[in-house]
């Protein structure tokens, strides 16, 4: 959990998603602020054809309990069906978070932690 708590910034989002959502890549930004009390503040996270912003609870779920078979962060969905999911990927000691936007179109957003 210590590796998750902090501020994460979107460093890559599928260009096709930006076009579909009518967003400009130069102006697009998205942040996730995970707190140790299991709450998260989401700022402009890509979601299907638009972006969403909210504050809700989050949980780090072990691989055996996730559809991806990897450590996954689930964020309470609120009025939306099902939770939001971000898959944790670790390469060369660097952790990133990946959010699938549209599975069929292979759109995704990738986040890196910028502060603890």
Radius of gyration, whole Å: 13 Å
Our count of helices gives: 1
Order of helices and strands: EHEEEEEEE
Average of pLDDT: 94
Terminus-to-terminus distance: 11 Å
Strand content: over 45%
Shape: globular
- The portion of residues assigned to helices is under 10%
Weakly predicted, low-confidence segments: none
Structural class: mainly beta
Total strand count, please? 8
Strand order of the largest sheet: 1-2-3-4-5-6-7-8
Largest sheet: 8 strands, antiparallel, barrel
In short:
The protein is mainly beta.
What does this structure look like?
With 116 residues, this protein is mostly beta strands. It contains 1 helix and 8 strands, in the order E-H-E-E-E-E-E-E-E. An 8-stranded antiparallel beta barrel has the order 1-2-3-4-5-6-7-8. Strand 6 (84-91) and strand 7 (94-102) form a beta hairpin. The longest helix is centred in the first third of the chain and has 7 residues, at 15-21. The chain starts with 5 loop residues before the first strand and ends with a strand.
Question: What are the key terms here?
Answer:
single chain; 116 residues; mainly beta; 8-stranded antiparallel β-barrel; 1 helix; 6% helix; 54% strand
């Amino acid at each position: 959990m210590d590796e998750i708590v902090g501020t994460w910034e979107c460093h890559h989002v599928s260009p096709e998603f930006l076009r579909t959502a009518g967003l400009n890549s130069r102006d697009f930004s998205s942040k996730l602020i995970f707190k140790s009390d299991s709450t998260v503040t989401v700022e402009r996270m890509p979601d299907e054809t638009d972006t969403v912003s909210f504050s809700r609870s989050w949980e780090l779920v072990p691989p055996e309990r996730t559809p991806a078979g990897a450590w996954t962060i689930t964020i309470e969905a609120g009025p939306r069906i099902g939770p939001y999911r971000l898959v944790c990927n670790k390469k060369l000691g660097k952790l990133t978070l990946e959010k699938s936007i549209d599975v069929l179109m292979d759109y995704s957003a990738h986040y890196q932690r910028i502060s603890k």
